[in-house]
Amino acid sequence: METTVFDILKKAVENQKKSIAFVLATVVVGIEKTPGRSGFKLLSYPDGSSEGTVGGGKLERIVLDKCREIHKTHKNDFLEFKLTDNSDGIGMECGGVAKVFLEYYSPSKKVYIFGAGHLCRSLVPILNSIGFYTIIVDNRKDFANKDKIPEAKEVYAQDYLEYISNFHPLENDAIVIFTHGHKYDYDILDYLCGKNVDVKYLGMIGSKIKVIKAVNNIKGKKYKGDLIEKIYAPIGLNIGKTTTQEIAIAIAAEILAVYNEVGNVCSMRDKLD
To answer: Which pairs with CB-CB distance under 8 Å and at least 24 residues apart come from 5-12?
Structure first.
């Protein structure tokens, strides 16, 4: 069955939801004589597989070679081809010109937020604005709905432990825990540590005393793995945060620092010395 342009676009959206990296190659200029018409699209994956087409033949082989390079550099590119067999062409006889734009899409960064209260509603728009895919879980139906948090990509009204019992986050994902009244924070953290999930970031809200108690309790259970050693708690950077909006900014900043592999966060002016 022939793959249509619509199929490729639909697959690209699915790839982002599943956190799959890919390069999208699109013919932006193609004239009647070229094998690839304007709008033809191709998806290339890190393992060398692909789907769709930019026209086939030598043109497509060159594009796929460039895609393999882009999977390493993560830099977009724009290619122009003369489809002739003379010295400035690529060895094709059909004639004409083809231009192809290649876009790299990294694995999506998902943030699972446990708790749909005021802090969640402040945090979600910030995370959306910096490219994170936000998924909200809360056991209260009155709070866990799209009407309350329309900016969230996905919202689930479900028991927390029931949700994470079938929870399979990827290593590029993040988890934020701040349930209402902090009633379920420890239970969620304990369950995640028991499963030893592998994620980029795990943060939990709480006072210093509460966090120390929770961490020590979980360490005493001697779970496999070292997830508890990686937790960011109390959550967020120290920016003198007091209001809900400020706390949300502090959390988003900490998550971003972790993803950008900033070891010691400091003011830019500190780098002047």
So the answer is: 5/39, 5/40, 5/41, 5/52, 7/52, 8/41, 8/42, 8/43, 8/51, 8/52, 9/41, 11/43, 11/51, 12/43, 12/105
